[in-house]
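Final report, closing paragraph on structural work. Over the funding period we assembled a curated collection of sequence-structure pairs, and we close with a single example.
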Amino acid sequence: MSNLKDKFKKETIQNLQKVLGIKNPMEVPRLEKIVVNMGVKDALVDSKNVEKASLILAQITGQKPKVTIAKKAISGFKLRAGDKVGLMVTFRGKRMYDFFEKLASIVMPRLRDFHGVKKESFDGYGNYTLGFTESTVFPEIDPGKVDQTIARQGLEITIVTSAKDNKEGFELLKALGMPFTKQ
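Its predicted structure, as stored:
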C-alpha cells in the first residue's frame, strides 16, 4: 500500500472532518482519479511523433498511454475526424496515490522559480488541473536521450476528487501535500 494512502486513511480523514465540519467520515472528499493528457504537436505531419510521445508518457507514468483521436474535422487545422491527436493515461487506486505523491514531493520542487501552484485552477466542482510546458521536469526523462521536439511537448494533469466544491477540493489537496502559493 502507498504511504500517502495509509496516511490519508489514518490521519487525513479525521483532520478533514474537523476542518470541513463533516460528521460522517464517508462524506470526506477523496481522490477519485488522476488523468495525464498530452496533445501531440505535429501528429498529423508525422505519425511517428505519436509513437515518440507515447514512449515519453509511458516513462513518466509507468503505463501505456491511450491514443486519443479527433472527434470532429476542423479545416483550419487540416484535421479530420479520426486523426490521432493526443495521448492520455488514467490513474486510480494505489498508482494514483503514488503518482500524486511523486508529483507533489519530487516533480514540483524541481521546477525553476516555483512558489507553489495557483488556488484558482479548480473547476468549481473540486477538481484541479495543472499544466506543464515540458515533460523534462519529470525525473524519468533524460533530456539528452529524448527527441527535444517531443520532450518540449506540454502535458496536463487533472486531479479528479469527490469534493462538492472548490473549498473541499482545496482542503483535500492541501492535506495531501499539494504545495499551494501563499497569499
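The radius of gyration is 18 Å. The mean pLDDT is 83. We thank the funder for supporting this effort.
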